[in-house]
Queue: 2 jobs
Job 1
Amino acid sequence: MAAALYRAMLVHSLDRHSVEWYADGALLVERGRILAYGDYATISQDFPGVPTMDWRDSIIIPGLVDIHAHVAQLSGVGSDRADLLDWLEQVIYPLERCCADDDVAASIADAFFQRALAAGTTTIAAFAPPFESATERCFEVADELGIRAVMGMTLMDMNAPAYLVADSNKLIAATERLATRWHNHRRLHYCITPRFAGSCSFTLLRRCGELASATGLPIQTHLAESRAELELIANLFPESSDYTDVYQRAGLLTDKTILAHCIHLSTTELERLSTASPAIAHCPASNTYLQSGIMPLVEYLDRWNLRVGLGTDIGAGYHASILDEARTAREHAKLRRMSQQTLRVPSHAEAFYLATLGGAIALSLGDEVGNFLPGKAADFVRIRRAPYRTITTTDDALAYVLYAASDSIYATMIEGIPVWQKP
Ligand SMILES: [Zn+2]
């Protein structure tokens, strides 16, 4: 593919606090990679003669990164229950059973990934259904649509209906086959996916840890989402000092592990997380939906220096937009501040970072995507600007993107190719 120059307002993160904004900017893309970015005047002079796409009515942001969602749960959106454990048993487990039919799994996967692309998500970490052939179909669909996905078959060997569990030997063998086929296949990555300690025996968890250590594959699971869950884990693993200890003893706390929620953690658990450096998937919409709690985001960033990204957590989360999650993360921090004035609210720059570069770093893909540094994949989103909106500063641009633009996504591009465009 020849080079193309996209002329538009540009905004992207360099780190958690630094954002670059170009009112009349340009993004130069060649063969799916970013060659240069900056002021239009400079870039067009440095690279004369490149065909220019005039997108001056739009803002370009890096592709959004969703670091936690469940493919099979899309059809259960909106069916909440009193808490996480009731919801799993009454709503989610019966629904995941439907994905034993490969065609059902494929059609749900198609809707799931299309929804993500329409929301500007170019990279997503997802739990595939708890069946090997359905997981195959999910990878095939993701591959066809061109989305960047980190995904794995959801593993359970106990404490769930018989139709969803299997013997740990079989689950590990299936994981190995799927990983051989899909890990690093084009834009796809395989992720070892034990659901959570509540539905995995210690044998299964330990074997997942051993496989991760032998292969270097990433791991995704859930940690400390609800208080009832903490009680369940304490009863199931009395030999462990706490929930985090279960994963640590199983070899699952690595710098390639994604832990969803992490709401109810003790200081000693946070100390261990801070050392082991897993990524935390913050899913604020899901957390209030299931009345699980509000994750102390600012403490995790400021005191514990944890790597945090954002997740929609479909289907406890009810929408596909990471911009909405970024906004909700700020709003939840405000709710906490109302009762504890010493707390601060994350800046627009931090919320935007979590939705883009922070998420990419959480998935160990920070060298590949997340911002516009030359050499990275040209994954970006075109957002149409409302004509009545005046944007004259970096913060204006961020405020608009975070609070007023999730319904103005016009095109989603991956490696310079449109993978979704507004009909
Ligand atoms: Zn989840």
Job 2
Amino acid sequence: MNQSLTYLSDQIWSYAETGFTEVQSSRAMCEFLRNEGFEVTEQIADMETAYKATWGTGKPVITFLTEYDALFGMNQTADVTEYRPITSNEATGHGCGHHLLGVGAIAAAIEYRNYLKENNLQGTVEVLGCPAEEAGSGKAYLARDGYLNNTDIALTWHPGLFNQVDTGSSQSCISVNFRFHGVSSHAAGSPHLGRSALDACELMSVGVNYLREHMESTDRVHYAYLNVGGKAPNVVQSEAEVKYFIRSTTNPKVLKLYDRVINIAKGAALMTETKLDLLFDEGLSNTIPNYVLEDVLADAFNKVPAPVYTQEELDYAQSFKDTFPIENVTAPQHAKNKTELQHMIKTHPLHQGVAETVHSEDCGMGSTDVGDVSWVVPTGQINTACYAFGAGAHSWQWVAQGKSALAHKGMLYAGMVLAHAAIELHTHPELIEKAKAEFKQRLGSDTYQCLIPSDVKPHLID
Ligand SMILES: [Zn+2]
Ligand SMILES: [Zn+2]
């Protein structure tokens, strides 16, 4: 089984398909799950590459979340310790390890299913095929459209540098394009007849950069120019577009900040006599932590033996560690024994053993669509070490190590830990009730309000 799982992750590594185009990757996963006896529904929630695979019946329903999208500009030859794209540096690659993430979740589902089958137990195992994590918010649509409504517990993981339980929250985020339309004209001959869309983008940037003085310190706003209106200074730019990410710690806060940014965009349009189109792109909710599940996952880490590496594998890891200034690698924020870990970072090629996590409510700077799932159902997450100490996510080093024994071992380890957590929850249904009680208490009177408006369908803006 382990061999066919690693083969599947290698296949997805090679496909390297970006958000909403993961056709071969999702098909390969669906075929694998069908062969394992899962009932698979493809193309759910208006997403061609989303799927749901189910095995068994009745309660509890435990859902393992997958990801399988790659990144643009992350093409890299496997196992090479220098930046060397296979095709071009524009091409795609698995710089975030989602080929491992998806298959690790499948490994967990199969291991848990085997336990139910061998012991003739009732229970439903689900694998939710979640596309477009990097851009597209696949899970937010699945959560919004009710694909987790029957789930009791959701479990997932992310490849990383450390073996640890994930804790804390993540930022709510809205991504939106501001498209300005003006009037072109000869910039010297008849400038008075032109209305510049580029001026509108620039004035909007000025306004937003003054806004920074009056935001909360944990708020973030960043932008990229998608269309600057051409290359000719002697033409008044009639079309221009800028993309914004707007982040805050909670959904109500991000919606308020979003309104303030919209007002600035309207002001820029008014000042320049241009027309503004607002194109909603993505909405990601903050993550609701669950300490009960964190404890169950910590317990599972203690039950599953951590990977053991051969000298050859350790040497391989060291060769990648040497490609990155190690002083930039720090112990995870919520690790209990940071000093010990910092020492291991200096002396070892990769993390061995488990880093104990201290529960936290802190909001990390960054966003994930797992947040939306965590608003609908108690959700637990772990990380496992799949790469040498050194470069972090979205680096050529991660792509290069993506098919290595380190990556495979970390992926299978994650699968076993998640499966053991599921078995523990099945054996002790009171833990599921406790996790649900904590979930209810954390939400209080709040209900899940997906940041994506109900009329917005899964899409990518060109
Ligand atoms: Zn990523
Ligand atoms: Zn990722």
